[in-house]
Amino acid sequence: MGWNDWYQYECKISDAIIRAQADALVSTGMKAAGYIYVNIDDCWMGKRDAQGNIQPNSNFPDMKALGDYIHSKSLKFGIYTSPGPTTCADQEGSYRHEEQDARTYASWGVDFLKYDWCSAQDVYRPDEMQGAYKEMHDAILSTGRPMVYSLCQYGFQSVWEWGASVGGNMWRTTEDIGGNYRRWSLFAFQNNGLEKYAGPGHWNDPDILLIGIGKTNLDEDRAQMTLWCILAAPLLAGNDLTKMSPEILAILTNPEVIAVDQDPNGIQGRRVWQEGPREIWMKLLSDGSKAVGMFNRSVGTLPVTLRFSDIGIRGKASVRDLWARKDLGVLKDSYTVAIPRYGAAMVKVEPE
Ligand code: GLA
Predict the structure, then answer these.
(1) Which residue CA neighbors atom 11 of ligand 1 most closely?
(2) How far apart are CA 68 and CA 38, in angstroms?
(3) I need a surface site. Which of 18, 29, 98, 148 has the fewest CB within 10 A?
C-alpha cells in the first residue's frame, strides 16, 4: 500500500511535490491506514555522468536526501525505470546499465522499483522479455538491499504465469487504466480468472487507483476500491493527498474494506455470478467468512441480489455492510440492494 504520482502529475513532478505528499500521507492518516510506499514514477531522471551513473533531473536536486526524508517519516521510497534505452515518457532508461542503476538506487535508499517495458521492445526480442526482467531482479539482489519489484509490461505474454519466477512481487495485468469509469472498469474486471497466480509476495496489479483524481465520482470510487480489495490488489493511491475531500479520504481509508484487501491469507477473489451489467465477486477471508463485492456496471440504478448459495452458504447468514460499517442482521437465502449507476456494495457474509 502506498502512493504513486503518475496519474495526478505525469511528468510535472518535483522533490517538493514528493515531500508534500509524504507529509500528507502522515497528516491525513493514510499512513496509519497502511499506505507506506511513496513511489516516484517516470520523469525523475536526467542524463548519465561521465562514468555512466544516472543523475536525477533538476527537479530532484538530491535523491539520497529525498530518500532520507521519506524514511524519516517511517515511509518507504519507490522509484521507476525501464529495461529499455528510454522510458515511456522518453527519459533515460536502464538498458545496459542495470547493475549500475540498481547500485545507485540502493545508495539512495530505494525500497521499491517499477520496471516499465516501454522502449525495451526496440532492443529485445519478445522471447527475451523474461530474461530482461530477471536481469534487473538479479541486479537488485546483488545490491543486498531489499526492494519490492514491480513489473510493468501491461500483461503481455501472460506475465502472471512467469512474473514470480523472475522475481516479480507484483505485475500489471493490463494496459494503463487511467481515465473514467468506463476505461478503468473495462480493464480491471478482466482480472477475473487470474486468482490462482496471486498470493503473498506475488500479486496481480490492476494499476494505480484513480480515486480522488477528478475523473470519477464517489460511487465509482467506492466501486474501484471494492474491486481492488476483493482482488487483494496492491493499493497505490494516485491523488493529490494535500487536497483530498473527507469523502475521498474515507473511501481510501475505510478500515473494514482495507482489511479485506490485506487479509493475511492473500487469496485473490473472483467473479461468482454475472447477469448483464450486474456482477458479484467473492473473496475468501482467513476467518472463514466471505467478502462480497456487488457491482452495477450499467448507467442506471439497479437492484442486485446476492444469493448465499452462490458463495457456498445454505440458509441463514449474518451480513455486514463494509462501506457503512453496519450490521444488516441475519438474512435468509439472499441479500438484495439497489446499487447506483457504476456503483458497488461490499458486504461480509458469515454463515449462521
Ligand atoms: C506506462 C506505464 C504507466 C506509467 C507511464 C510513465 O504507460 O504503464 O503506469 O508508468 O508509462 O511514462
Answers:
(1) 88
(2) 12
(3) 29
| Pocket-testing residue among 9, 10, 41, 113, ligand 1, by greatest number of atoms within 8 A of Cβ | 41
Closest to 225 (Cα-Cα) out of 215, 235, 214: 235
User: Would you please indicate which residues are annotated as catalytic (active-site) residues?
Assistant: 116, 176
Q: Which helix (H) or strand (E) holds 45?
A: strand 45-48
Q: Mind listing the pLDDT tens digit for each residue in 93-128?
A: 999 999 999 999 999 999 999 999 999 999 999 999
- Cα 88 to ligand 1 centre (Å): 6
232-283 pLDDT, tens digit each: 999 999 999 999 999 999 999 999 999 999 999 999 999 999 999 999 999 9
Residue ranges and CATH numbers for the domains of the chain are: 2-261 (3.20.20.70), 270-351 (2.60.40.1180)
**What per-residue confidence (pLDDT) applies to 80?**
99
pTM as predicted: 0.98
pLDDT digits (tens, 9 = 90+) for 185-237: 999 999 999 999 999 999 999 999 999 999 999 999 999 999 999 999 999 99
> What atom in ligand 1 is closest to the CA of residue 89?
12
* Residue found under cell 555512466: 52
Which of 297, 344, 341, 349 has the alpha carbon at shortest distance from 323? 344
- Which set of grid coordinates corresponds to residue 248? 475521498
**What is the DSSP track for 223-258?**
HHHHHHHHTT---EE-S-GGG--HHHHHHHH-HHHH
